[in-house]
Amino acid sequence: MIWVEVIAGVMLLTGAAFVLVSAIGVVRFPDVYMRMHAATKAGTLGAGLMLGAASVVFGELGITVRSFVVFFFLLLTAPVAAHVLGRAAYYANVPRWERTRLDELAGRYDEADATPGEFARPAARATDDIPYP
């Protein structure tokens, strides 16, 4: 029975470490796109490991099923939410990090590309020239 507690403890500490790395990434990364990436990837993995530790410790079918359902819900919703927020930030002209070299969405939200019923990317504002702090 002690091995179950050791395995659960390792899973819990590893999950907490991933959540900590995710939080540090959210604070330290230079732009909103990198922050969302850190929060989504490491945060989801850390939460999944913690839920796995809970299901190992309790060992009951009901708790294990609930843990897997919550983790599955996180896997479905976190990447979609990050994608939607990233597109909204890009559409709102949120400045990118000055070292960002590749813009794969350039030209996709311009006025000329918009068809009726679609939202066109607004024209650049005077504040867009201000560098990101």
List the helices and strands and how they pair.
Elements lengths: L1 H27 L3 H27 L2 H31 L42
Overall number of structural domains? 1
The count of β-strands is 0
CA radius of gyration: 20 Å
Shape: elongated
Please outline the major beta sheet.
Answer: none
**N-end to C-end Cα span:** 53 Å
The helix fraction, in percent, is 55-70%
- Summing up helix and strand content along with how strands pair, one would put the structural category as mainly alpha
Short recap of the structure:
Helices cover 64% and strands 0% of the residues.
Question: Can you walk me through this structure?
Answer:
It is built from 3 helices and no strands. It has 133 residues and is an all-alpha fold. The protein has one domain (2-124). It is elongated, with a radius of gyration of 20 Å.
